[in-house]
Every structure is written in C-alpha cells, then in structure tokens.
C-alpha cells in the first residue's frame, strides 16, 4: 500500500512511501536544479534524517523523456560558487545518508542531473 507523506511546502517534488521505501518523484517538467528545487531536496533529506524507518530511497521523474536537465545556467552564472557548493552539499548528503538510494533514470540526465544521479548508490 502506497501513501503520500507530508513534507510541508513541496511543489516540485512528490513524496510517496510504502513500508520502508520512500519514492521521490521530480515533477518540475525538466527537473532543472534551481535554488527552489534544491531547497525542496534539502527538506526531503532533513525528513529522511529524522525518519529512520525508511531504508530505501527511489528517485524518479514524472517526465518519461527527461530525468533531469541539470544545472540552471542563469543561476550558476549569477551565484557561481554558492550555487555549485549547494549542489555539492546536496549530493554529499545523499551519499552519506542512511538510506540506500536508487536513481530510476528513464530519459535524459544532463550535467548536474547526471552528477546527482551518480550520487545515488
């Protein structure tokens, strides 16, 4: 039985759970790593840190052709190192998390999206 978990203010990600599995579906069409998109991922990581019952994370895309279009060029141009550091921190948090993570990639995973996919187990 799958149910939807409540993480406040998620608009770009959909979270569903089944027993010890949490599935995060990226729903932002091209799933580009904007600051808002990364903020929501940090909320998910915080949730996982506080909910030890989950042992498996599956990341997928609602778009059948695009898993992630990667970096947001406008933001990286404007914020430079702060942007790159934030993406690196997100990837680090995923890599050291207590959950086994699976990137269910169907479609393209470009640039930062590829990096994030590789951060999964």
Describe this structure as you would to a colleague.
The chain is an alpha/beta fold and 121 residues long. The protein has four helices and nine strands, in the order ββββαβββααββα. The longest helix has 16 residues, at 35-50. The protein is globular. The two termini are 25 Å apart.
Structure summarized in a few sentences:
The chain is of the alpha/beta class and 121 residues long. It is built from 4 helices and 9 strands, in the order ββββαβββααββα.
Which key terms come to mind for this protein?
alpha/beta, 5-stranded mixed β-sheet, 121 residues, 4 helices, two-stranded parallel sheet, globular, 27% strand
Describe how the helices and strands are arranged.
Elements: E1 3-4, E2 13-18, E3 21-26, E4 32-33, H1 35-50, E5 56-61, E6 66-68, E7 70-71, H2 73-79, H3 81-96, E8 100-103, E9 108-109, H4 111-119
Parallel strand pairs: 3-5, 4-7, 5-8, 6-9
Antiparallel strand pairs: 1-2, 2-3
Number of strands: 9
Low-confidence stretches: none
Instruction: Please state the average pLDDT score.
Output: 90
Distance between the termini: 25 Å
Helix/strand order? EEEEHEEEHHEEH
Proportion of β residues?
25-35%
Strand order of the largest sheet: 1-2-3-5-8
Q: Percent range for helical residues?
A: 25-40%
- How is the biggest beta sheet arranged? 5 strands, mixed
Rg computed from alpha carbons, rounded to a whole number of angstroms: 13 Å
Task: Give me the secondary-structure category.
Answer: alpha/beta
Envelope shape: globular
Number of helices: 4
């Amino acid at each position: 039985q799958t149910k939807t978990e409540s993480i406040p203010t998620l608009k770009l990600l959909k979270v569903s759970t089944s027993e010890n599995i949490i599935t995060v579906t990226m729903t932002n069409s091209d799933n580009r790593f904007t600051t808002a998109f990364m903020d929501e991922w940090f909320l998910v990581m915080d949730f996982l840190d506080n909910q030890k019952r989950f042992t498996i994370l599956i990341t997928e895309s609602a778009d059948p052709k695009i898993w992630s279009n990667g970096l947001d060029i406008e933001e990286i141009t404007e914020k430079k190192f702060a942007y790159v550091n934030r993406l690196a921190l997100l990837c680090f948090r995923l890599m050291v998390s207590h959950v086994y993570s699976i990137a269910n990639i169907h479609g393209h995973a470009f640039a930062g999206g590829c990096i994030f996919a590789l951060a999964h187990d």
